[in-house]
Specification:
5 helices, five-stranded mixed β-sheet
Length: about 220
Amino acid sequence: MSLILSLDTSTQNCSVALHDKGQLISQELVSEEGSHSKALTLLIEKVMKTAGFALADLSAVAVSNGPGSYTGLRIGLATAKGICFALDKPLICLPTLQVLAAAIQAPAEKLLLPLLDARRMEVYAAVYTADLHEVSSQEAHILNSGSFQEFKPLLAFGNGSAKWKETCAHTAITFVEEPLCPEAQYMGKLAYEAFLNEKFENLVTKEPDYLKEYMGTKPTLKSL
C-alpha cells in the first residue's frame, strides 16, 4: 500500500484527497476564498476518517506548489511540511498547472494548455502532452492574439482561458468551456509517480513556486 495525502490550496478551492497507488480513495473540497487556513486541517481530518486511516499510515504527502494564490500556496506548503516533519514522511511538490492538466482527458495528438488567471491579461501557463509530459514550463505570460502560435493543436482550459478566447488568433486551438480548477483529486497518479522515483523535497528549504515576485503591502504608520 502506498497512501499519499494530496493538498491543493492554489486557487479559491481548498481540496484534500487520499490516494493508494494513484487511485482515489477519499476527497473533500470547499470553495471559499480566504478560508483555507481554517478549512484545510478539517478537510484532512475528514478525508482520513472517511478512508479509515491515520496520518501515521501515510507513505508521503503531496502538495500543489504553484503558481497560484500567494497566501494559499504558503498555507498548503506549510501544512504539508508540518505533517511530514512530525511523522517523518517524504514531501512531494507538484506543479499546479500540471495538476490542472491532469483534469483533462484528451486525444494523444492534442497539446494541453492550462491557464490560470493572474489578473488583467496575464496568466500562468504551461504546455503539456496529453500524457502530462512537459513541453513548455510554467511561466507568467501576458496574452495577446498571437500567443502560443508555435504549439498546435492546442486544448486551452482553466480560469485564464475565457478572457483570451475572443481575441485569440490561434487557428489550431480548442477552448474547453467547463470551468476547471486544480484539485487534489487530480494529483494521485502524478504524486505516485514522483513517489516511485523518490522525487522528494527538502523540508527546510522548499518554497512555493510563485513565478512572480510577491508584492505585499506595507502597513501605514499613523501619526499620533
